[in-house]
Specification:
Elements: H1 14-17, H2 37-53, H3 65-72, H4 89-100, H5 113-123, H6 125-128, H7 136-149, H8 153-164, E1 179-183, H9 186-202, H10 205-222, H11 243-246, H12 250-253, H13 256-289, E2 299-303, H14 310-326, E3 353-356, E4 361-364, H15 366-374, H16 376-399
Parallel strand pairs: 1-2
Antiparallel strand pairs: 3-4
Helix pairs in contact: 2-3, 5-7, 9-13
């Protein structure tokens, strides 16, 4: 979506763009810090509606799965969506009180994580109990929802989930959607990702980042604002990894220190890219493949391990699947999600917060909680604490008359 930054975002090439109409490219100035998935969704839906009205087949290519999900499912609240209050005078008074609360969104940047969490706990304890106190982005999002709708975020999510019959949100926007999942052998994929980073560096990645960083600071100085590397494009893969190098003075970038930081940035980019690919795989399995309580389109696998076999393994099977479905028939290939076992029902919608009084840490969800309690670090702290308690008891006994 960002204007420029073609290399770091691995944008589709000009030649590829000329082969078929593309949408949602180069629409956002990367200096704008608050382009959100909600804004993306609100821009995409009218485009899809227009294509369908003209008998065109929209193809959504990704990309960031969360953004794709916002288009396929009704998982995010639009500004005009409302939720009726539960019956009862107490609820009416409660909602009325919440609507009158003045939460100034522009002051969030100056408030600590603890203050934000305590504020959310006060107005929406149910939502707060599902979030880690340091999850600043999601806490602010919940406070923003309350400000925009006058209703708790937890109440809005309940209404969505009731409509969709799923803990993850509402129903499919278009029940006849089809998912084509390009899959690749993990070792081949990791080699391919490393090569992609090398190619990005060779085609001018570092200079692209330097040019953007310079433009960002010029604008920041003009507007007399402090540097903020925690929002917007700076949170994208590729910026955080090179941050230490980008903030160096020009002369230091040419010295040994600069060379070392640049090499580290490249190595870190390769590492985080491979981790992200695994995270995407887990995301698809947990939120699509293993959900039996969610409206999920059929998912067909296409093997892109050998790009020399692209036509026979990817393109031709994809065309066959889609054309068969458009004829109202069932493809020969069995959808992957018809045979998946170990269905998943636990997610952010129903996971609760756990507090370890021994380690004084917060954990979200039973899985992380169980891992922590069985971990060596927790057991070590617990053993040390019990030993200290025994020593204190023994001391009290010895000092008693």
């Amino acid at each position: 979506v960002y204007k420029g930054l073609d290399i770091i975002t691995a944008k589709v090439t000009k030649a590829e763009q000329s082969m078929v109409p593309h949408h949602m490219l180069n629409i956002v100035d990367p200096l704008i810090p608050n382009f959100t998935v909600v804004k993306f969704r609100d821009m995409v839906i009218p485009i899809i509606d227009d294509l369908l009205a003209r008998k065109k087949l929209p193809i959504i290519v990704g990309g960031t799965n969360y953004y794709i999900e916002s288009v396929l499912w009704r998982v995010l609240m639009a500004k005009d969506e409302q939720v009726e209050s539960r019956e009862g005078e107490d609820d009416v008074e409660d909602v009325s009180r919440l609507k009158k609360m003045k939460i100034e969104l522009d002051r969030f940047s100056s408030i600590s994580n603890d203050q934000l969490f305590n504020e959310l706990m006060e107005v929406d304890p149910e939502m707060a109990n599902k979030l880690h106190p340091n999850n600043r982005r999601k806490i602010i999002r919940s406070l923003e929802v309350l400000k925009q709708h006058g209703v708790r975020h937890s109440e809005l999510l309940k209404a969505q989930r009731a409509a969709g019959g799923c803990g993850l949100g509402g129903p499919l926007r278009h029940p006849n959607s089809v998912l084509l999942w390009l899959r690749c052998d993990q070792k081949v994929l990791e080699t391919r990702l490393d090569s992609r980073v090398d190619a990005m560096v060779e085609t001018g990645l570092v200079q692209e980042l330097l040019d953007f960083h310079r433009r960002y600071n010029e604008q920041r100085i003009k507007s007399n604002t402090s540097a903020d590397y925690t929002t917007g494009i700076f949170q994208s893969i590729g910026f955080k990894e090179f941050h230490a190098y980008l903030v160096l003075p020009e002369e230091e970038r040419r010295e040994k220190k600069g060379e070392e930081l640049l090499e580290k940035g490249i190595a870190d980019l390769k590492l985080v890219t491979k981790k992200y690919s695994k995270k995407q795989e887990q995301w698809i399995m947990n939120r699509i493949m293993r959900r039996s309580d969610r409206q999920v389109p059929p998912v067909y696998a296409l093997d892109c391990t050998d790009v020399n076999e692209w036509n026979s393994c990817v393109y031709e099977p994809a065309v066959e699947i889609i054309e068969t479905i458009l004829r109202g028939e069932k493809p020969e290939q069995t959808p992957l999600n018809e045979t998946v076992e170990n269905h998943k029902f636990s997610d952010a919608s129903n996971e609760e917060r756990h507090y370890c009084s021994v380690c004084e840490r917060v954990f979200i969800g039973n899985h992380q909680w169980d891992i922590h309690r069985a971990g060596q670090k927790h057991m070590k702290v617990l053993k040390k604490k019990r030993k200290l308690e025994q020593q204190q008891k023994q001391k009290q006994i010895e000092e008693s008359p």
